[in-house]
Amino acid sequence: MAIHEKTLIDPSKVLTSDHLVVDGVDVSGHWNTMILPRTLREYDDKFEDHIKQYSGAENVHRCWQCGSCTNSCTMYAQNTDFNPRYWIYLVRLGLADEILKDKDIIWQCVSCNKCTNICPKDVRPEGVMKALAHWIESEGHGEKSRSTVFDEEFARQCLARGRIEDSEVMTNFFKDTQQDIKEMALNGWLGIFVARMNKWTELRKGNIFRFLTRTPIMHSLHMGWSMFFKPKTKSWGRTGEVLSQYVKEQKELAHG
Amino acid sequence: MSDTVLVVGAGPTGLSAAAGVASIGKKVVLVEKEDVLGGAPILSGYAKLVPSGEWAKDAIGRMIKRVEDNANVTIHKSTRVVKVDGEAGNFTATLSNGQTVNAGSIILGTGFTHFDSINKPEWGFGTYEDVLTTTQMEQMVGAGKITCPSNGRVPERVAILLCVGSRDRQIGREWCSKICCTVSTNLAMEIKELSPSTEVFIYYMDIRTFGLYEDKFYWKSQEEFKTKFVKARIAEVTRSPDGRLLVKGEDTLVKRPIVIPMDIVVHAIGMDPNEDNPEISKVFGIGLEKHGFVDRGEQYTSSFSSTRRGIYVGGSALGPEDIDTSISHGLAMAMRAVGDMNALVQKAA
Ligand SMILES: Cc1cc2nc3c(=O)[nH]c(=O)nc-3n(C[C@H](O)[C@H](O)[C@H](O)COP(=O)(O)OP(=O)(O)OC[C@H]3O[C@@H](n4cnc5c(N)ncnc54)[C@H](O)[C@@H]3O)c2cc1C
Ligand code: SF4
Ligand code: SF4
Ligand code: SF4
Questions:
Q1: Mean pLDDT by 10-residue block, N- to C-terminus, for chain B (349 residues)?
Q2: Are strands B245-251 and B256-262 parallel, antiparallel or unpaired?
Q3: What ipTM does the predicted assembly reach?
Q4: Does residue A39 sit in helix, strand or coil?
């Protein structure tokens, strides 16, 4: 049956089936739509403590829901669904499923800290937002953000060789985030960027000398060389291994 | 002209007034209808008082002893005043034990009556054993162990419902009882102290922990004792098949109906006008205000006057009041009573 005020209903609560038999009666067609109740039936009493283990959320239990954070929030001004006050409340009561409904916008916090500066209870909502974004990502509730993919590649190279190769970081980052390098170089921003860097315009104007002196030829060659031979920091040895172990231990300490 | 002051009611207000009058060297006759002194904190067995943190029996106990030990004070327990004749400076009060008291002024510290939760049947009191009032919960704290009355298990969760019998036009109670927010946040801490594995939830419309009680009680119970505050006025308390209680309501901050399992539900009961007030009004010839508390006379130059000259009223007889304030009302009334008697003596001379 048609629902007349569909805007009032959370889409995930509407069940529609093509063929529906209730108590042996075929009700397909007119009566094939059901609305699940939206009653909250449980709190997860452990959830708040769990989120508090992510750095930034240590004070979340202090919140008294005044709404100053949301009111001052840079992102809320753009999108009224971006509501730190609300998410903090959900953390306190342990309503994780409700938070996850907003997992695609929570990461948008720009860390301007307006909320933290205005909060009368020193909850530090900006930290809570960070903690939530980490929770969503590290416990596999959402896709990895591009910046995390970048960080991971960056860290991997640091640990392996004590240094990074810019071009390798970029190529792997583009690959891991399914961005087509060739397409970007030929028709996208990458081509334009490289052309500008290499003073292409000078060449087009016929200033060959200026082109040659201003183009970082050696640098490009060096980058190309490093792509294949991957130099290491001197006497790096087992440093990477030890560092990785340390990072792992710290993570375990923080998140149990 | 009598230089005796009749004090009616031996709660914090009456005890303070009696001690005050006696300390100026005047005679006091103290009349209390119950067979123990101390008023609500003693009669209902409160645990630790706000804001001092002292056990009620110790703190109020000292007030009782101070009066009992004073030679200027005559005490009548299990006694009421049945008749008052005369006028300011020269009242004659007849007591239920047949004696008469000649008094220059009369101080009323007749207090309040606890709201009876039976009058809100939808919240399960009287139906489910695990639904209690704040006074019952205070007694449990006093006994030192937090368990569900139904089967003795340690509660995983306790819900405290604020404003039970206050701020509710449905039952003709349009006042805020003033102290129950503070008492409830304090109770949440006491529960957590005795039973660390128990989570305490306070369901509120507003939190009114006035003055310094804000951080000492509200903030502390939230920040140090992890009490959770949920903005909802519970509509109904029922029982689930597994024996736990269910609190139903609307969480106004998530705009969703809630039905949450709890093990104990505590009613933060309010302060009603003393149920004797209609009788008190008749016997003493004084007026009541619209809610049924004792009415005031002129407030600014004739503080604590009732509507009849020579009779003073203070503490929770005037409306919901905390102990600190009741004690200062008592002392202020002692000042009024003695001062006015002196004025009459001077006029006569
Ligand atoms: C659950 C709860 C917890 C509370 N906890 C605290 C707290 O921790 N700290 C705090 O500051 N306040 C607390 N209060 C408030 C406190 O109870 C009152 O402020 C205080 O009891 C008021 O004192 P009172 O003397 O005016 O009245 P009462 O304490 O009510 O005393 C009145 C006395 O008068 C007697 N009496 C009544 N009628 C007559 C009559 N007709 N003839 C003779 N005698 C009569 C009564 O028997 C009683 O002894 C609490 C209140 C509630 C409801
Ligand atoms: S400003 Fe602070 S106290 Fe107010 S709602 Fe935000 S986090 Fe909570
Ligand atoms: S730090 Fe994030 S949550 Fe806080 S005001 Fe800025 S954008 Fe909003
Ligand atoms: S003090 Fe708090 S619980 Fe008591 S009536 Fe007022 S608002 Fe309600």
A1: 93 98 97 98 95 97 98 98 96 98 98 96 96 97 97 97 96 96 98 98 96 97 96 95 95 90 98 98 98 95 95 98 98 96 86
A2: antiparallel
A3: 0.85
A4: coil
Residue matched to tokens 């606890």: B114
- Report how far residue B194's alpha carbon sits from residue B140's, in angstroms, rounded to the nearest whole number: 10
What is the span of the domain harbouring residue A173? 146-234
Residues A80, A99: Cα–Cα separation, whole Å: 15
pLDDT digits (tens, 9 = 90+) for A34-84: 788 889 999 999 999 999 999 999 999 999 999 999 999 999 999 999 999
Which ligand ends up closest to the CA of B80? 1
Ligand 1 atom with least separation from CA of B115: 53
What are phi and psi for residue B90, nearest 5 degrees? -155, 70
3-state secondary structure of B348: helix
* Dist CA B283 CA B285 (whole Å): 6
Pairing state between β B27-31 and B73-76: parallel
Q: Is residue A242 part of a domain?
A: no
Same domain (yes/no): A114, A150 = no
Report the 10 Å Cβ neighbour count for A165: 20
Domain assignment present for residue A252? The answer is no
Task: Quote the minimal CA–CA distance from A1 to chain B in Å.
Answer: 24
Kindly state whether B259 is in contact with chain A, defined as any CB-CB distance less than 8 angstroms: yes
Q: Say whether both A130 and A61 belong to one domain.
A: yes
What is the tally of structural domains in chain A? 3
B288 CA to middle of ligand 1, Å?
18
Domain assignment of residue A194, yes or no? yes
Asked if residue A106 is part of any domain, the answer here is yes
Residue ID of nearest Cα to ligand 1 atom 12 = B322
The answer, yes or no, to whether the previous bond of B241 is cis (omega within 30 of 0) is: no
The structural domains of chain B, ordered by start, are 4-111+274-348 (3.50.50.60), 117-271 (3.50.50.60)
State which of B133, B161, B168, B176 you would mutate to test the pocket of ligand 4, scoring each by most atoms of that ligand within 8 A of its C-beta: B176
- Test mutation, B218, B223, B236, chain A, max A CBs within 10 A: B223
Tell me: do A172 and A220 sit in the same domain: yes
